[in-house]
């Protein structure tokens, strides 16, 4: 994978630059040639005009010495034809001049047996009548050679540039491909075993982002994996202790405890309690799994106050047994809710408020409307120590482990609540002071 991508990058760079240099060279060649011919043209034109001064159109005589001088200056051969007679010719090749005998200045690039020439024909007039032409023939070979020489130099520089580009593209491709490879390796490793493997964030911006994204993802996966393991460990532990308790009780019964009715009754009652604890735990786990697996809940418009009244009613027997009064204040708000789940969440919170309050206490529930719906459930019970607050929504987390045994809590209630509120796109906060009480504040989006 590395080599393929790398060579591709190098090849692309190289081809583009090569094509560019090729085009530039071709254009330079033609531009130089044109430039040369253009500059030659004005020189020769001037020379041709000068030659006219040394032609006597009345006696058909030419001053050969002068003409030789002039033609030498412009490196050209000259042919003078007048009244269909060749008056002067030092061009050693035989060509037909008919097509150049024009009454205006005429130029042409011609090729005679493989050699290039630039030809300029200048008309001669006698009393306003066109009687002949001075033809300058300039061999382009020397000029072209000079252009070729320049071209060669440019070509040399081009190849040097090409070489540099080649090396540079090799380097660039390395800086792209190497970190890419590191990421791929890291992903492949992650497939085999989930460990934190931070890769160096380096290179181009996009590559850096890729590395960063991988590192974040890696961290998240490791966290999730840790949570999963922790959950399995916690759940097994929680399930193990009531089972172990029952095993001891049953063994004692088998070993003779059955004879004594009082002992037998007490043991059976304890076993029954452990079974209750176990089934509560399993039910809690099932609920949690169910909620965690739900992507979206079916929502209906409900009045939160009516729902709270129903929850309070179903908890009344427990509240009464501890002589706790529950007060519900604030106006009803219609919200988009999943009835069963929201019932469960409110139930868990109010149940906690009762469970963690002393007898003859009270609970205040307040509904407020802001840019969100705010429901506060406040008790005046035992409170939660500050250091435990960050964890109370964690699964199986209980502040007082020994007390939990008595009250039978599994530590799952609040994590269920948190999930349900999250599925409603809401938020839950807790404020508490040991000995003074606790307030849970739920914020739910208003129906739009
Ligand atoms: N209103 C409250 N006052 C004081 N402590 C509370 C209150 N609500 C929760 N807690 C503390 O937070 C812990 C976690 O609560 P959570 O509801 O998750 O579990 P639980 O009540 O122990 O068991 P479960 O609800 O699963 O039967 C509790 O064990 C308790 O220590
Ligand atoms: Mg609870």
Automatic annotation (TrEMBL):
Q: Name one GO molecular function term.
A: ATP binding
Q: Where in the cell is it found?
A: Cell membrane
Enzyme category, top tier: transferase
Q: Where are the transmembrane segments?
A: 12-32, 154-172
Pfam families recorded: HATPase_c, HisKA
**What residues does the Histidine kinase domain cover?**
234-448
Q: Which keywords annotate this record?
A: ATP-binding, Cell membrane, Kinase, Membrane, Nucleotide-binding, Phosphoprotein, Transferase, Transmembrane, Transmembrane helix, Two-component regulatory system
Membrane topology of the entry: Multi-pass membrane protein
Q: Indicate the segments forming the HAMP domain, all copies.
A: 174-226
User: InterPro entries from the xrefs?
Assistant: HAMP_dom (IPR003660), HATPase_C_sf (IPR036890), HATPase_dom (IPR003594), His_kinase_dom (IPR005467), HisK_dim/P_dom (IPR003661), HisK_dim/P_sf (IPR036097), HssS/ArlS-like (IPR050398), Sig_transdc_His_kin-like_C (IPR004358)
The EC number(s) given in the record are 2.7.13.3
Any one GO CC term of this protein is: plasma membrane
Give the main localization category: membrane
Q: Which reaction does it catalyse?
A: ATP + protein L-histidine = ADP + protein N-phospho-L-histidine
Name recorded for this polypeptide: histidine kinase
Organism of this sequence: Caloramator fervidus
**Phylogenetic lineage:** Bacteria, Bacillati, Bacillota, Clostridia, Eubacteriales
